[in-house]
């Protein structure tokens, strides 16, 4: 801890004005020394169930050296519990020493929130895994692993201190990264590549922001003029202007199911996506995005999850994975999204992708794209809402992005469970009192049939 304080102090001393290039604290390693990995990694996420699945994969993959887990506050995880949930999951995977930071509080372009009820259900799932839960002790609380720094500050610190360029994986609305780079643009110099989960780029009709997400328990308000101030799921309906104006139906009067042409992570913070592209354009870093279509045929279903769990040699992980699948499936549409993005990332970085057998089966390469921030409430027949669209645009202030448009479920599943099974240390030793319910049957590892999924 003393070391950390000294380092922080040194950063402050070297600081100077905002955005200036600072002297690295440690001599960077040569390109050759950094070439083969393990690559330092920042995992920025929104603490949903698929982020937890992604974390399992990252923890089991020795090619990554996880430096920070930064939690978005405007995605699925609650701002209060998302970070401690991720800290507990990291500890289960032997990564309890990785700092976990609370995210920047609000979207930079608030328009929508995930229904509060769904977010609380993620917390309820994690709580069930703590000592005394129905499955015995699966997770332990690790509040001391929460960083004293905010997510953007932690991102900057990792970028500044790393002796090799850092890989950044973001699987939520990219707000933390963008707040970090807005305050310290030069920190981006030490990024190796950025991998992002989101957008409905490239394939018409892959919008996944729906009207039914705007309402919970019959109460509107997930999408409103004043977004984050109106995320209550409780009656009575939200009324503005002394009872005269009710929150409009749908999303500011539009049906997102019919008119949307975007994806949840982008929609949560359209401006953050736009700014991320703007900032990264200056550096020529490679950016890879897993678009919504790529995971369209990869739902998280119980058959796959139970088979995957059965292939694991760690009981606590087995129970965790099966229970996570149940909790995740309770919240409507559930896909491998973030975990798929993590596996795609490894495929790109370690040449599996180049060999044609990665988790991405079809790429739209080197696309310069703009992020549309214009809202229009009156659309012609069949016209889509521009807000949140990402389209080809040669004039965009954006880097060349490789978009993954189609997944390869078979290689995704094989690679995923193989790496998760590497996880060795899971905190304290099991005791007889842990009282595991061992309902998980050992079956053959992932028959191909289990990968044909219903939608
Ligand atoms: C966890 O506990 C519940 C309640 O006892 C049980 O139904 C479930 O099968 C258990 N899960 C696993 C994966 O053993
Ligand atoms: C979108 O995904 C589906 C399902 O995997 C696939 O059949 C289709 O070819 C994909 N589209 C593109 C453009 O890759």
UniProtKB/TrEMBL annotation:
Segment forming the signal sequence: 1-19
Limits of the Inosine/uridine-preferring nucleoside hydrolase domain: 41-336
GO cellular component: cytosol
GO molecular function: purine nucleosidase activity
Record keywords: Glycosidase, Hydrolase, Signal
GO biological process, one term: purine nucleoside catabolic process
Stated family: Belongs to the IUNH family.
Protein name from the UniProt record: Inosine/uridine-preferring nucleoside hydrolase domain-containing protein
Organism expressing this protein natively: Polarella glacialis (Dinoflagellate)
């Amino acid at each position: 801890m003393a070391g950390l304080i000294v380092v922080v102090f040194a950063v402050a001393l070297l600081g100077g004005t905002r955005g200036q290039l600072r002297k690295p604290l440690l001599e960077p390693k040569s390109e050759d020394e950094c070439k083969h990995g393990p690559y330092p990694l920042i995992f920025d996420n929104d603490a949903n169930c698929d982020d937890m699945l992604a974390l399992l994969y990252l923890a089991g993959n020795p090619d990554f050296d996880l430096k920070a887990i930064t939690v978005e506050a405007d995605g699925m995880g609650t701002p209060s519990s998302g970070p401690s949930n991720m800290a507990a999951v990291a500890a289960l995977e032997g990564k309890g020493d990785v700092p976990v930071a609370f995210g920047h509080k609000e979207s930079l372009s608030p328009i929508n929130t995930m229904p509060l009820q769904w977010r609380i259900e993620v917390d309820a799932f994690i709580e069930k895994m703590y000592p005394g839960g129905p499955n015995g002790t699966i997770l332990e609380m690790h509040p001391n692993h929460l960083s004293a720094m905010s997510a953007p500050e932690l991102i900057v610190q990792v970028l500044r201190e790393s002796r090799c360029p850092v890989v950044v994986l973001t699987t939520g609305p990219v707000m933390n990264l963008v707040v970090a780079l807005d305050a310290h643009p030069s920190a981006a110099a030490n990024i190796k590549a950025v991998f992002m989960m989101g957008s409905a780029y490239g394939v018409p009709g892959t919008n996944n922001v729906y009207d039914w997400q705007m309402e919970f328990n019959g109460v509107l308000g997930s999408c409103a003029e004043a977004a984050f101030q109106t995320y209550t799921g409780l009656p009575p309906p939200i009324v503005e202007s002394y009872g005269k104006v009710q929150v409009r139906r749908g999303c500011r009067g539009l049906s997102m199911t019919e008119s949307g042409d975007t994806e949840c992570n982008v929609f949560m913070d359209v401006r953050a996506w736009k700014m991320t592209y703007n900032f990264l354009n200056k550096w020529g870093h490679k950016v890879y995005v897993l678009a919504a279509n790529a995971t369209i045929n990869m739902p998280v279903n119980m058959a796959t999850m139970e088979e995957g769990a059965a292939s694991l040699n760690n009981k606590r992980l087995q129970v965790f994975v099966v229970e996570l699948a149940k909790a995740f499936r309770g919240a409507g549409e559930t896909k491998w999204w973030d975990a798929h993005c993590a596996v795609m990332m490894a495929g790109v970085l370690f040449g599996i992708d180049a060999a044609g057998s990665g988790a991405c089966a079809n790429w739209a390469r080197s696309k310069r794209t703009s992020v549309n921030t214009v809202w229009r409430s009156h659309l012609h027949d069949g016209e889509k809402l521009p807000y949140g669209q990402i389209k080809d645009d040669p004039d965009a202030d954006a880097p060349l992005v490789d978009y993954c448009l189609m997944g390869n479920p078979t290689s995704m599943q094989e690679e995923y469970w193989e790496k998760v099974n590497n996880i060795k240390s899971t905190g304290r030793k099991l005791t007889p009192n842990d009282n595991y319910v061992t309902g998980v049957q050992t079956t053959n590892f992932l028959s191909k049939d289990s990968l044909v999924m219903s939608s």
